[in-house]
Amino acid sequence: MGNCWGTNLSSDSASPSGSGARRKIGAGVSSRVSSASVPPTPRSEGEILQSANVRSFSFNELKTSTRNFRPDSVLGEGGFGSVFKGWIDENTFAPARPGTGMVIAVKKLNQEGFQGHREWLAEVNYLGQLSHPNLVKLVGYCLEDEQRLLVYEFMPRGSLENHLFRRGSHFQPLSWNLRMKVALGAAKGLAFLHSDKAKVIYRDFKTSNVLLDSNYNAKLSDFGLAKDGPTGDKSHVSTRVMGTYGYAAPEYLATGHLTAKSDVYSFGVVLLEMLSGRRALDKNRPSGEHKLVEWARPYLTHKRRIFRILDARLGGQSSLAGAQKAAALALRCLSGDSRNRPTMDQVVAALEQLQDHHATSSSGNNGHGRSARPNHHPRRRLPTATSA
């Protein structure tokens, strides 16, 4: 399912659990939008579970629906645990035979560790109350003895990470149009979280947490690190630094001050990954190209050099103007001064405008507009990028 994949790091001491497979920085389908804000934390576990608008499953129900958590039903694995494919009846939610009823994804928590339980509870807290077309739907949970599981809608196309970086016949390169569609959907999900209806900071936006349905609609998953946003006259939330290296905003890393603009920076990194087809951090690249933001920044600031960062697999599908606008948006999101970053509402507006511009130029030019061809110019050795 992809909700908890990726290399995470931690600034506090390692969690007592051994769920250190998820190492963190520093220390960790409805179209209806819910109008209720997530109540300020802390709330007790009992209050969270009682207020969640989801089904409480027994362990045996989920064991049956996944065919006893068979290895061949594993969808993915991460620090939280493994994700299994299962089936339940659409009306009763009782276990169903494979291939019948509703497909679900069941995330099973590794049984060691307090941190894992806290992240499990955070998912129930947020996804148990918030509903939006661009958030993955939480169907239910299981809390029984030492067992902690989460049940989600099944996302048949998996994670954005797989489509951008996995090679093989199952994962075809995403077209420019699909990349922009996914970017817009993910941006709408973040904009909703930042809105007055939710007031949530996601804190772990990355390609592995963006899941795709059969029509490539993007939905945010894995709310284990989400936090309530600042209240009253406060400008930020002070918290230990958690997230994923390569995606975390520099001011958050430096101070632990978390704001909605921290998510905007992470969105900029993901948008840059979508434009370039490169990972945020990749030590297999030549020296000077390990950190995507540092390597790409000099090219983002020059309109005529944008082609140097574009994914060669795009093959000139985008117009030069479209590529320049998307790169300029990524650069704004990646501003070192958080005050200069756009809000996610502004990001959504920019991406919608970009889609409208692409549709207009394509129809006006019968598809023969000037394209941005990443492989049109001979490759020269790229200079070492300046620091982000």
Describe the structure.
This protein folds into 2 domains: about 10-155, Phosphorylase Kinase, domain 1 (2-Layer Sandwich), CATH 3.30.200; about 160-365, Transferase(Phosphotransferase), domain 1 (Orthogonal Bundle), CATH 1.10.510. About 30% of the residues lie in helices and about 15% in strands. It is built from 10 helices and 14 strands. The chain has helices at about 45-50, 60-65, 115-125, 160-165, 175-195, 250-255, 260-275, 290-300, 320-335, 345-365; strands spanning about 10, 55, 75, 80-90, 100-110, 140-145, 145-155, 200, 210, 220, 225-230, 235-240, 240-245, 255-260. Strand 3 (about 75) and strand 4 (about 80-90) form a beta hairpin. Residues about 1-25, about 25-40 and about 375-388 have low confidence and may be disordered. Keywords: ATP-binding, Kinase, Nucleotide-binding, Plant defense, Serine/threonine-protein kinase, Transferase.
List keywords for this structure.
single chain, 388 residues, alpha+beta, Phosphorylase Kinase, domain 1, Transferase(Phosphotransferase), domain 1, six-stranded mixed beta sheet, nucleotide-binding, non-specific serine/threonine protein kinase, ATP binding, Kinase-like_dom_sf
